[in-house]
Amino acid sequence: MRLKNIDLFKGILIILVIIGHVLIGTMNESILRTIIYSFHMPLFIGISGFLFNVDKIVSFSLSTLLNKYLFRVIIPWSIAILFYFSISLFQKSSVNILTGLFKAFVYPYYHLWFIPAFLSWIVLTWLLIKIGIEEKFLLFAGLLISIITRLLLLYPEVYQNLGNFKLVIDLTLHTFRPYFYFFFVFGLIYKRLGLKKRPNLFDVILPLICLTGVIYLFYNPNKMFSLINFFIFNTFLLSLVLKVSVHSMIKSNKVVEWFGINSLAIYLWHVLPILISKLIIGNKDVTLFYITTFSLEIVFIIIYWYLLRYDFLKKYVFGL
Fold first, then answer.
1. Using CA atoms, how far apart are residues 33 and 21, in angstroms rounded to an integer?
2. 305 within a domain of the structure (yes/no)
3. Which of 24, 124, 270, 293 shows the smallest number of beta carbons within 10 Å?
4. pTM for the full predicted model
5. How many domains does the chain have?
6. Are the beta carbons of 317 and 38 closer than 8 angstroms?
7. Is-contact 232 214, C-beta < 8 A?
8. How far is residue 316's CA from residue 267's CA, in Å, rounded to a whole number?
9. What is the DSSP string of 17-78?
10. What average pLDDT does range 222-238 have in this prediction?
11. Residue 153 maps to a domain
12. Residue 29 belongs to a domain
């Protein structure tokens, strides 16, 4: 049975992804972007883990496992990689096409890291189960992997002098982002263990307390506090979202749910209107940039909705 509240939250999150990418300024310069980035990917990833059917893939070979996602994510992602790479060719005076294309797949453009990371979390989960890791230890393994790699992200100086190993770590952190893996595992484990009870007052209060920590850290940066708050905040928030979704506690909204159902394609292609806006008017006039960009995003959604009538595009480009 499809959970409409899951689609609803996915829709809210993909809208926040668009807003976060449109906002001008770095994380250090925008409190709104900081808040959005503090939870939108961990929640998205946790929901992906919740929807992942781990029982079904236990008996798969690696090739069967990857083939399962060939049309759903790998081909649409590859087409998006080629498209954005083609755009980059017009922005650079000279580039070795073969080398550039290789880098485009290995170090995906901007937002396109999510698909290889998502596939890596699936493969890692499959591998851990294959080698005999029990589910009760899977969550601990996920937390350990995530904390270690999050620390490497926060303290890159630790591995800067490790030669080729540094390149491997940089690639892993950029493309596969294992510091998010805990939330993927949390989603799939929590589906089995923690969803019978409806959320209580503490389920709501605890994420709000952690959110104040996010705001505090914006004005008073502290790496270790940010590490702790990152995991605690998103664990509490993900738990709340999953409980609310399972018990269908929020009224259905077909528009937002449509965004959730189509989140993959929107995620892959929503950056195009931003690029067009920057090319046409730039971002020096902030108000004009926001008006133009959000208008183009609306046009993009309308065009995408129209293109859904073509089965070829639905299958190969949009992953439907």
1. 8
2. no
3. 24
4. 0.93
5. 1
6. no
7. no
8. 15
9. HHHHHHS-S-TTT-HHHHHHHHHHHHHHHHHHHHH--HHHHTT--HHHHHHHTIIIIIHHHH
10. 95
11. yes
12. yes
Q: Which residues, 6 or more positions from 65, have their beta carbon under 8 angstroms from its beta carbon?
A: 57, 122, 123, 126
Q: What confidence score (pLDDT) does residue 106 get?
A: 92
In percent, how much of the chain has pLDDT > 90? 71
Of 129, 210, 135, 146, the residue nearest 181 (C-alpha): 146
What are the structure tokens assigned to 153, written together?
């992200």
- Are the C-beta atoms of 66 and 116 separated by less than 8 Å? no
Q: For residues 181 and 241, what is the distance between their CA atoms, to the nearest angstrom?
A: 18
The answer to whether 193 and 132 are in contact (CB under 8 A) is no
- CA–CA gap between residue 96 and residue 299 (Å, rounded): 34
- How does pLDDT run across 285-306, given as a tens digit for each residue? 899 999 999 999 999 999 999 9
Its domain, for residue 8, covers: 4-264
Residue 133 CA to residue 127 CA, distance in Å, equals 9
Q: Does the pLDDT at position 282 exceed 90?
A: no
* CA–CA separation, 163 and 166 (whole Å): 5
Phi/psi for 15 (5° steps) reads -65, -40
Residue labelled with tokens 């190969």: 316
Residue 165 · residue 29 · CB < 8 Å: no
- Say if 9 falls within a structural domain: yes
Neighbouring residues of 291: CB distance < 8 A, sequence distance ≥ 6: none
The secondary structure of 188-231 as a DSSP string is HHHHHHS-SSPP-HHHHHHHHHHHHHHHHHHHS--HHHHHHHHH
Mean pLDDT score, 188-216: 88
For residue 194, pLDDT over 80 is answered with: no
